[in-house]
TrEMBL record:
<feature type="domain" description="ABC transporter">
    <location>
        <begin position="23"/>
        <end position="270"/>
    </location>
</feature>
<dbReference type="GO" id="GO:0005524">
    <property type="term" value="F:ATP binding"/>
</dbReference>
<dbReference type="InterPro" id="IPR027417">
    <property type="entry name" value="P-loop_NTPase"/>
</dbReference>
<keyword id="KW-0547">Nucleotide-binding</keyword>
<dbReference type="Pfam" id="PF12399">
    <property type="entry name" value="BCA_ABC_TP_C"/>
</dbReference>
<dbReference type="InterPro" id="IPR051120">
    <property type="entry name" value="ABC_AA/LPS_Transport"/>
</dbReference>
<keyword id="KW-0067">ATP-binding</keyword>
<dbReference type="Pfam" id="PF00005">
    <property type="entry name" value="ABC_tran"/>
</dbReference>
<dbReference type="InterPro" id="IPR003439">
    <property type="entry name" value="ABC_transporter-like_ATP-bd"/>
</dbReference>
<keyword id="KW-0813">Transport</keyword>
<dbReference type="InterPro" id="IPR003593">
    <property type="entry name" value="AAA+_ATPase"/>
</dbReference>
<protein>
    <submittedName>
        <fullName>ABC transporter ATP-binding protein</fullName>
    </submittedName>
</protein>
<dbReference type="InterPro" id="IPR032823">
    <property type="entry name" value="BCA_ABC_TP_C"/>
</dbReference>
Length: 274
């Protein structure tokens, strides 16, 4: 067996950047009554990676997101983020700690403008909150101005700057997905969890989504992605983990995972795999 210290020294000597774990899902089991959605799943996402979570429908992918973001407390196991335990934390604490997500079914404030939707995301980081807003405290006004500027920058960043005053529900579908990403980025996350961001997009939209995901990573954030579009996953991911019936059946680079017989079997065996 290789000595980890030797491995680290060898990597350093070779000039290979060392993998720094950011999100550690450590033997997590999540049970809902008789349904085991995750069974001793162990996944580590390193800082600066684009990491994809794939698997047939019902494999447990969204459950991973829900366990990481404090929606569910795991039945057993731990979740650590930047070395700190986050399983069992409240959702807002996880967000403040640097974890943001988007949802499979878009969740926007449909009657608010694009800009306002992003400003709501930025609010998660404000110190004055609702009390400051009601009392109209000076620093609340300053924060709101800052929030507005940040929201504009983020709308530009995701490519829908010219849509800032459009009502969310009137945006084309692909732009709504971009808006959700901008809103998640407004919390200034270290890691962004994207749940099926390409769902419902046409090929051109998928192409530019890939560019956006790379741009998010290049801006210094880590990306954890659930996606059914295998072309997209295999193109942009540094590493891929495959879940099947709540268990991790493979993990590695796209090239390695694609050749794995258990992965091929899981996908060929699933009637609705895409
Ligand atoms: N709150 C819950 N209560 C009961 N069962 C649940 C709950 N959440 C998830 N499950 C079950 O856990 C299993 C995994 O679901 P999950 O949504 O994580 O899968 P998924 O891989 O994200 O699927 P899809 O690709 O279809 O979104 C499924 O059998 C699902 O029915």
């Amino acid at each position: 067996m290789t000595n980890p210290t030797e491995t680290t020294a060898a990597a350093a000597a070779a000039g290979t950047p060392l993998a720094e774990p950011l999100l550690e899902i450590d033997n997590v089991t999540m049970q809902f009554g008789g349904v085991v959605a995750l069974k001793e799943a162990a996944i580590t996402v390193n800082t600066g990676e684009i990491f994809a979570l794939i698997g047939p429908n019902g494999a447990g992918k969204t459950t991973v997101f829900n366990v990481v973001t404090g929606v569910y407390r795991p039945t057993s196991g731990q979740v650590r983020f930047a070395g700190r335990r986050i399983d069992g934390m409240k959702r807002f604490q996880v967000t403040k700690g640097g974890v943001a997500r988007t949802f499979q079914n878009i969740r926007l404030f449909h009657n608010m403008s694009a800009l306002e939707n992003v400003m709501v995301g930025a609010d998660a980081h404000h110190r004055t909150g609702a009390v400051g807003a009601v009392l109209n405290l000076p620093w609340h006004r300053r924060e709101e101005r800052g929030g507005r500027e940040l929201a504009r920058e983020l709308l530009d960043f995701v490519g829908i700057g010219r849509r800032s005053s459009d009502t969310a529900k009137n945006l084309p579908y692909g732009d709504q997905r971009r808006l959700e990403i901008a809103r998640a980025l407004a919390t200034d996350p270290k890691i962004l969890l994207l749940d099926e961001p390409a769902a419902g997009m046409n090929p051109a939209e998928k192409e530019s989504l890939q560019d956006l995901i790379r741009k998010i990573r290049d801006s210094g954030r880590t990306v954890l992605l659930i996606e059914h579009d295998m072309g997209l996953v295999m193109h942009i991911s540094d590493r891929v983990a495959v879940l099947d019936f709540g268990q991790l059946i493979a993990e590695g680079t796209p090239a390695v995972v694609q050749r794995n017989p258990a992965v091929i079997e899981a996908y060929l065996g699933a009637s609705d795999a895409s």
